[in-house]
Structure to design on (395 residues):
């Protein structure tokens, strides 16, 4: 069936575009809320690190859960729970700033987000044919990017006019609408799974035994360590170094999403032309070079262009690696393999976010972005020395 005529996939595509727009609200509004209330980039980094730690802990059981329950109902439940959590922020904030509440809600939201993301990856092969997975992921990334353009721009305007707490309230509404949309889709029945009771370790064993997945997991662990705090540092650079207001932050992040729109439709052809390994290495090298230049940029247009290139590289690399994982992993293991993959390569993310923001406060954004960008390029080029470099069958 042609993807454009696949009703279930197209509904899924639409509600996920809305969901990612909502995610961008919290991604931008919560750091702005912290910055408005405390003026501290370190607290922004701590919250980002805590969020990453919550995702890491959740990954231990998320895959087992996704492989054992109805995946559609799980997605709906995660959306409704996140709606309730984020709705609590504006309600409690009516009595005045309550920073402690963010240290409760943000990790819980991240944990639910981790479960949602694992389930989302496992659901895609149940919506499309096997030879359409890369194309489907490309469309999802492109539609996500469209939502990502409107989301940050809108949150910047709302935050500037009404404050970031109102933007977080809008975020809660988007999760409700997403849940209602998910109720309309139907998944293709999965093949009967073998009787096994392995949890995260079962997924980790699969990753370790597969030479390409093993290499990819190790490289991404270090890549994410170096880039986990990039949004916080970007916001700090625009607000502190360049003296911009909240709507400029939203505009830059919206422009950055253009990178995903450009990259997503090209990924299938690029991968077929130069192979999985070369595609991933080229894309992550581009991201590293762009990140290195962000802190050196002294104007908003230059920052926007560099962030668009950064997102272009991460989008192409992300689509490529996710599609490959979905293609080589048996359906009954996909939740656990995805959870193990993300849990392992996010293990250093919280520390990376904390160090990046601490470094920005101590040594300046320019220094930390150049160092982190150079590290990303070295990690990326290391992929040429691994089994990822070998020719692989076309997607």
């Amino acid at each position: 069936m042609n993807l454009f005529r696949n009703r279930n996939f197209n509904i899924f595509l639409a509600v996920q575009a809305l969901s990612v727009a909502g995610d961008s609200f919290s991604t931008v509004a919560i750091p702005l809320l912290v910055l408005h209330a405390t003026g501290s980039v370190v607290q922004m980094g701590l919250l980002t690190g805590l969020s990453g730690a919550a995702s890491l802990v959740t990954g231990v059981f998320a895959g087992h859960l996704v492989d054992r329950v109805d995946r559609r109902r799980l997605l709906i439940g995660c959306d409704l729970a996140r709606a309730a959590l984020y709705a609590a922020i504006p309600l409690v904030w009516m009595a005045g700033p309550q920073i402690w509440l963010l240290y409760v809600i943000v990790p819980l939201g991240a944990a639910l987000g981790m479960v949602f993301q694992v389930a989302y990856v496992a659901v895609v092969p149940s919506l499309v044919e096997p030879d359409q997975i890369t194309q489907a992921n490309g469309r999802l990334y492109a539609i996500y990017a469209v939502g990502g353009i409107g989301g940050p721009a809108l949150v910047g305007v709302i935050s500037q006019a009404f404050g970031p707490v109102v933007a977080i309230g809008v975020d809660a509404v988007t999760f409700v609408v997403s849940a209602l949309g998910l109720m309309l889709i139907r998944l293709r029945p999965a093949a009967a799974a073998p009787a096994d009771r392995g949890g995260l370790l079962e997924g980790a064993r699969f990753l370790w035994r597969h030479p390409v997945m093993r290499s990819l997991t190790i490289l991404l662990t270090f890549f994410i360590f170096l880039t986990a705090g990039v949004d916080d540092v970007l916001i700090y650079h625009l607000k502190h170094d360049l003296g911009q207001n909240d709507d400029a932050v939203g505009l830059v992040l919206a422009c950055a999403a253009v990178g995903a729109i450009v990259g997503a439709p090209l990924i299938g052809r690029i991968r077929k032309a130069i192979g999985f390994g070369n595609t991933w290495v080229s894309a992550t090298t581009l991201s590293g070079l762009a990140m290195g230049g962000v802190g050196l940029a002294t104007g908003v247009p230059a920052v926007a262009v560099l962030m668009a290139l950064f997102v272009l590289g991460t989008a192409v690399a992300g689509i490529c690696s996710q599609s490959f994982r979905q293609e080589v992993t048996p359906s009954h293991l996909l939740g656990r393999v995805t959870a193990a993959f993300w849990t392992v390569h996010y293990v250093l993310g919280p520390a990376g976010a904390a160090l990046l923001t601490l470094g920005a406060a101590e040594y300046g954004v320019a220094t930390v972005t150049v160092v982190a960008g150079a590290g990303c390029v070295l990690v990326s080029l290391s992929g040429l020395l691994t089994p990822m470099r070998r020719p692989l069958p076309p997607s």
Remarks:
- Residues 203 and 337 are 4 Å apart (CA to CA).
